[in-house]
Amino acid sequence: MTYASVDDVAAELGRPVPTDPNVIAQWERWLTRIENQILDRIPDLHARVLAGSPTAELVADVEATAVARKALNPECLRSTTRAIDDGSVTKTVDQTRSSGELELTDGEWDLLLPRPVRGAFTIRPEWG
Fold it and tell me: CB-based contacts of 55: which residues, under 8 Å, 6+ apart?
């Protein structure tokens, strides 16, 4: 069972929960796929969640956001053109919004696996 649900994805998209069983099954499959990707990189995810870092809510947010991006562009289209008679409309998907792939952004990975803050230099003020 994934941390996020179909309800979370619908809320992320600002849409009602789908009633079509095919859409529900697709979103559930995508949620499972994204969680499998997370577990591949963070095998002890469940233990980390139990310890409180990251929280279950944060993991659910990350999963729902990734699936919502995929739902916005399920066919991985970059641009589409529709022509009717002598008029046409062209739409181009912003790559930062959705590549159509089911993947986490670097920022989302950073939320799940925060990097320790390290500096190359230490600055010590001198008084005198």
Answer: 49
